[in-house]
Specification:
single chain; alpha/beta; eight-stranded parallel barrel; two-stranded antiparallel sheet; 25 helices; globular; disordered C terminus
Amino acid sequence: MKNAYRAFRQYSCQFRKNWLEYLILFGGLDILNQFLVIPFFRWITTFVLQAGEIPFISYQNIVIILTHHPLVVVSLLIELICLMVIIYGEFMLLLTGFREIGLPEFSWRRMFRQTKETLSLLNFGSLILLLGYFLLIIPFADIIFRTPLLAKIQVPQFIVDYLTRNAWLIGGLTLFYLLMTMIGIRLILTMPLMVYQHLRLRAAMSQSWQMTSKLRWLKFLIQIVLMTIIVGSITVVFYLMIYILQVVLDLLPGKLSLITAIFNLSILQLGGEVLAVWAGTIILLVVVNPLTSISELATTPEHPSRGLLTSFMLVFLVIGLATLANNTFYMMGTGIKRPITISHRGVTEKNGVQNTIPAMEKTSKLKPDYIEMDLHETKDHRFVVMHDENLKDLTGVNKTPHELTLKQLTRLTARENGYHAKVASFDQYLAAAEKYHQKLLIEIKTTPHDSKQMLQNFNRRYGKRILQDHDQVHSLDYSAVTKLKNINPRLTVLYIQPYNLGNPQGVADGFSMEYSTLNQDFITQAQWQHKPVYAWTVNDTDLMKQTMYNHANGIITDNLGELNAAIKDFTGKQSYANRILNYIIVVPTSGGIEP
């Protein structure tokens, strides 16, 4: 513990001596990713998909893309290779910078030149190995180098939720992550070795494996964890100090409290970025210290050239002014709108059985804007209200909806959350919703067993009523979205998108997006096209507030009461201190630079 604290003080001293260089290095890469690299690759991905007449990539069309669109596949692979090279180059620049900063002969030009030389160590044959290496070290890399580029590489939360429903899957997943963590920490010195000893990738991985043998990897892990805890604690104290200060300043008369709130929020954001760079510097020094003596780094630095410093300050000034304007609007409550509330599968706080009429009747009393529910086609080409493709979990019957007639299905009893209710036909469910004047968000589930006329039958039976009731439709099957829009252009049909990869496009009237990969950029671009974006399934108060901060049009949730309380807290009249507190809650899950 003493050694860790001594290292913490030593590395903090190193940061204090060279803080400007570290800020330019980290901040410059962050700005480059946020405003150039990420938008460029999103545009390229969108362009490639549009050229191949592919609206989105999802598990439903991945086989078709692989077998029928070879040029798209090749283009996306080339894009992936380019992205890997950019990530590799950024880490090399970061590590080269850490070796160079503080040396008497330090110059930014030489740092870039040496980074270019290290890029030559990467050849085509090692690209696959590099991809595997990145997947292993990304959890540690994101701690060291907090960047929106790495934030894009994640497993959607709904997949994690699915994998953690079964005890065996949870155990297997835990063992998998432990194994990946072990291998990742053993290979953590690979890139520093490539930079400092000019080893090629395979040789550097082998050397890293040897240097972390005999439990020496545990020292790295303990130091990284301890440094993260220390820096995290200091960050929490800093945020609390700003909040408590604003609580006192809210007592000031007139507009003074508003002015101080805008100033304090800006200080909080600036301080948060500096603390993030400080944390990254300390943890990266933990990694590179065995290869580069700290005494070599502790000399008096040569500050960046006037031209580079001026350029960085101009960019920082533009971002700062945009942030100041955004903070003013946020503190005044301008642009903060109440999102559409949508009850997922018609239940809230486990008040009944999903997709059943009794649950819908109880949930409608909380006045959600929409109740989301699911439809499957039956054996006799009717429609039953059911989410799962197999009835066993809810009814105990090991059958699929297309194997039974509607009459057979509506005789079944579904059980969940300590309740039971009859399986409902869509006619019954729609009639009950109309009785309570409850609008619906209807998800059309598709399977390979559906009839060819399913969507025509759906529109013929329910199209007029859906329009009269101002209901909406959405589907995970994009072909169903396009066909339904062709059949009845007046219907509001949204596409359920499980992963945010490119820019919003296609014929859909809007998007239901899985929340963990949804970001403000996608929402803004969709809204420019006058297309709403609903986030699903958001069940945590903090995530609800983050989604509102990102201006999503609607929130799909299993906890409607909690959502209503979060909306009241976030959009209602509140003190400036509470607005700062709400922002603090949003910050940890947003990541990157917020303009």
